[in-house]
Fold this protein.
Amino acid sequence: MVCYFLMNTRFGFTGNGGHIQIFDVVSSKILLEEEIFQGQRVHGIVPGPERRLAVFGGRMVSCFKLVSATENCKSASLQLCERLSLWMSDWVLALKWLEGSLGGVEMALVTSSNTVYLWKSGLELKRVPCRERCTFARYSACVSGKSWSDLVVLAGTVFREIVVWVIGEGEDVEDRPVLHRLTGHEASI
């Protein structure tokens, strides 16, 4: 198992290989096991608005909607959201649903090249890279914020540091500078 999250006090989700499982938290019974990616492992499951789930692994992202989960927790099903199965040019390290995404699915994706992409309804709207890019050196990332312009990215490196940068305002293709480096960790982050 690579990742998991609890949707509420009743449903849990795990990523194992290229599959996700939905289970009843109370009984530990598996309600659904579904293959999401062939040849890629699921690295993250992120709950979104309107019972949506974003699942990412390797260079792939798929968005699903939890169609039904019965009250007696005997079954569940997933449906691929229209036009939202993405193949990125780099590994996806983090994903963040953004507030104010009414009328379509909107999410920010952080990739291993230290670039953040804004996607809405299956279309790439914006792409903002950090000035410091090194594909082999990005192991992990976290993105925080409620809207595109206030996103903060923390990217872990093999050089035992975390680089911090923000999207902010400006042209989409303009490189953003590193604001801070968190150092002192004893291993790759």
Remarks:
- The mean pLDDT is 82.
- The chain is about 0% helix and 55% strand.
- The chain has two domains: 1-87, 114-189.
- The radius of gyration is 17 Å.
